[in-house]
Amino acid sequence: MTGGHRRILVVEDDLETAGQLAEELTTSGYEVDLAATGREALSRGSERDYAVITIDRMLPDIDGITVMRQLRDDGIVSPFLIISALGEVDDRVRGLRAGGDDYLVKPFSFVELLARLEALGRRSETIAKETILRVGDLAVDLISRSASRRGKKIPLLPREFQLLEYLVRNEGRVVSRAMLLQHVWDLHFDPSTNIIDVYVGRVRRKVDDSQAYPLIHTIRGIGYCLRAPG
């Protein structure tokens, strides 16, 4: 994994094992979040965009496979590395078919864990570059037609998604109401319509409300611009 996207979620109920993994991964240059239960994994996994999620199959409340399936159903695309003492062929096949991207059997070598994380990270970055547009902490997934900020999904209607996608593709540029009407609605400019302002208002509330900083800015008398600070 390169650049700033080196955050990993480690889902492990054994506190000693989790602590060792967190310490070794941090020393290797990763940022690490920990989850000790399935419920905590579901909460953390849906809040942030992780480069990789490592997950133990045997958790105290919800088993790891159920957690993976739920996060996949919720639109989480981060690769999963299953780490489990269940190492039979049937166990590995079930884990991979349930949504896992790789499977590592306990006990394992930390060097092998690092190698598998790097491989999954490279694959994740390649997919993300092709299908996900990013501005600041906003991610727009062109495949699932969904958006999120800091890993939290933003509920958008189809036209709202089209509007946001157009603004993101024109990051840093001022786009006029006429441009939005033409490219998002395929209509010629009608000076009497307020449809643009209505939809931008809806999208702005969904994207910017309760966030650390706004992304959608009004350029008085001209139109709108989507940009992150700095």
**Total DSSP helices:** 8
The helical percent reads 40-55%
Spatial strand arrangement across the major sheet: 2-1-3-4-5
Instruction: Kindly report how far apart the N and C termini lie.
Output: 24 Å
One letter per element, helices H and strands E, the order comes to: EHEHEHEHEHEEEEHEHHEE
Estimated share of beta-strand residues: 15-25%
Q: How does the overall form come out from the CA principal axes? A: elongated
Mean pLDDT: 87
Report the oligomer.
single chain
Number of strands: 12
- The rounded Rg comes to 21 Å
Describe the sheet with the most strands. Answer: 5 strands, parallel
> Regions with pLDDT < 50 over 5+ consecutive residues?
none
Structural class: alpha/beta
Topology record:
Blueprint: E1 7-11, H1 15-27, E2 31-35, H2 38-47, E3 52-56, H3 64-73, E4 80-84, H4 89-97, E5 102-105, H5 110-131, E6 132-135, E7 138-141, E8 146-149, E9 152-154, H6 158-169, E10 175-176, H7 177-185, H8 195-208, E11 216-219, E12 223-226
Parallel strand pairs: 1-2, 1-3, 3-4, 4-5
Antiparallel strand pairs: 6-7, 7-8, 8-9, 10-12, 11-12
Report what the structure shows.
- The structure is a single chain.
- It is elongated, with a radius of gyration of 21 Å.
- The protein has a 5-stranded parallel sheet with strand order 2-1-3-4-5, sandwiched between helices. A 4-stranded antiparallel sheet has the order 6-7-8-9. A 3-stranded antiparallel sheet has the order 10-12-11.
- The chain contains 8 helices and 12 strands.
- With 230 residues, it is α/β, with parallel strands linked by helices.
- Helix 4 (89-97) links the parallel strand 4 and strand 5 (102-105).
- Pfam families: Response_reg, Trans_reg_C.
